[in-house]
Design goal:
The chain has one domain. The protein contains nine helices and no strands. It has helices at 3-12, 16-26, 32-42, 45-57, 62-70, 74-89, 97-125, 136-148, 152-155. The radius of gyration is 18 Å and the shape is globular. It comes from Kingella negevensis. InterPro entries: Brnchd-chn_aa_trnsp_permease. It is found in: Cell membrane. Pfam families: AzlC (PF03591).
Length: 162
């Protein structure tokens, strides 16, 4: 895969896990249907993340909602939801579109930029697993989970009241 192809894929498919799966599959004889199916399956969690955003985005025009959903990844979603809950507690309008989009676009720019740099220096570095980078994804998710953790009582499902 060329540097240009890598950057195009990273910019259009802004989702780390599915990109790793796609690149692994891309090494074989280009199984497009399999790549699409794997990407859809891995990113199906975005259905729930998008549903959690509905209360904050439902009054916005589609021209604002679609870019917000395009750059929605685990990190931007967590930061957007956490900011909305904080703003609600402070008596402010819950969702700050500029904050969310600024956070998400920053993540997108860094993702594509770092992918570009990585595709250039990757062949020089060789197998990067010797540097311990395989711990990066679990570490990021642990930090995200810790940031949203409110204790065991907050995690118990409750039936809605009428």
């Amino acid at each position: 895969m060329s540097v240009l192809e890598t950057c195009m894929m990273m910019g259009l498919n802004f989702a780390g896990s599915s990109e790793f799966a796609a690149v692994g599959l891309w090494a074989s004889l280009l199984p497009i249907v399999m790549i699409i199916a794997m990407t859809a399956m891995i990113n199906s969690c975005h259905i729930l993340m998008g549903a959690a955003f509905v209360p904050y985005l439902h009054e916005m025009p589609l021209r604002k909602v679609l870019p917000a959903l395009f750059v929605m990844v685990d990190e931007s979603w967590v930061m957007g939801i956490a900011d909305a809950k904080k703003r609600e507690q402070e008596g402010l309008p819950p969702f700050s579109y500029p904050y969310y989009l600024g956070t998400a676009l920053t993540l997108w720019v860094f993702w594509v930029s770092c992918g570009f740099i990585g595709s250039l220096i990757g062949p020089i570095l060789g197998n990067v697993s010797k540097f311990g980078f395989s711990m990066a994804f679990p570490a990021v998710f642990l930090v995200l989970i810790r940031g949203m953790w409110r204790g065991f009582q907050a995690e118990i499902p409750r039936l809605p009241t009428c």
